[in-house]
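#structure-requests
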Amino acid sequence: MSLARPVATVGFYTLASRVLGFVRDMLVAALLGAGPVADAFFVAFKFPNFFRRLFAEGAFAAAFVPMFAGTLAADGPAAARLIAERAQAVLLAALFGLLVVAEFAMPWIVAVIAPGFAHDPARAGLAVEFTRITFPYLLFISLVSLQGGVLNSMDRFAAVAATPVLMNLCMIAGLLAFARTLPTPGHALSWSVLAAGVVQFLFLAWCCARAGMGLRLPRPHLTGEVRTLLRRMLPVAIGSGAAQINLVVDVIMASLLPAGSISWLYYADRIYELPLAVIGIAIGTALLPRLSKQVRTGAQEEARTTQNRALEGAMLLTLPAAAALIVLAGPIVSVLFERGAFTAEDARRCAAALVAYTAGLPAYVAIKVLTPAFYAREDTRTPVTIGLVAVAANTVVGFTAMQFVGHVGLAAATAFAATLNAALLWHALVRRGNFSADARLRARLPRQLAASAAMALALWLVLDPFAPWLAQHGPARYVALALLVTLGLAVYALAALVTQAARPADLRAILARRA
């Protein structure tokens, strides 16, 4: 199977999840706006999500998938299943202990991640209450990450990619059913997050059983494989989690800014994460098992070719997405969120953060594509230094910039840190001889930039004529935004063909199965 097929599968379900996520966030914006309850919930939601992305989906997945996929290819399903079961038992025991400690220590934890709430006891109290409700989600979603690694290593990508859809459905249902019956809509959202974790875990447990890889739960025991797994996880948590650490640093510093800053950053983050998830995470998810198998079997040249085509395909989609988000930031934020408690001023401040975040979007995606090259070679230490440098850069630049441009400075610093991270990853791979841009990639990237610039110019030229329709509060604004997006896609497709940034034969090959 070509790499494009699993990428398309993951991308499709991720896109579906993000569309539902926008529906969810539109409800959140209408009911909570960007006020104290919204700030408190976003802190509560960010905390378990931080651990999920850093350890469960980041460190654990990056360390576990190469081990499981390599064992599956070399020793067969029985040996691979044993590794998964032992890892699951230790993971569950460790997470349960962390959960108990965190629930008791939550007031102090919230004081650390949102120090600015100290002068607002009501907002701090809500943040503690919401985080206590949402934190057990980490336990279930971490087990989901393990189950997902098992299924992805068996080239079964659809079920794993569909799990975020379940979460968004749970949160939408929770808002619609309980937003007006519980003390605040934030309570409804918090309980729905916990329910989503349970639903996702049960769904993937059923999928693993159907795939013939149902996992039992032995007593936790630190076997040699588990020790190796844990040893590889720590550096990965720092290296692959730099972007997530940067986002938490943003929350800590944003809590020191005026109320609403955390919410403006959250809504902007949700928009730019659409292309990041659909493109970067989809390619990275499909790339790691493929590279792991190629490296394990000694096919180093094939691994380099796979890396080049993955980066080329990622930039073919990411560069125009970044250009369009920068030009259309204002209309997108306004159309999606400006209603109910979310005011025009909220939309303006959110759009400014979106532009700053989006400047780093190509780098965010490049990190997702380049990092698997280290993990496939079971090198989890090199990204540590790179991740620490990126976190330090984000903190210093963000703290300085927020003094002048507030929350926009935090978003810009995050984009700068991601660009630095991607550049250092690229340099390390090239220096070691594990990656080099082939002639096709060197030729295509400038053409992709030119096609993206042509699309951005076309959108900028027609933005003023569309302004009256975008300013309305009826169906016309949705139609106008859809027409702008369609126009951008058409211009980019034409420009890509004219500049040969992409060729029809390449697009046909993306959809084809090959040995």
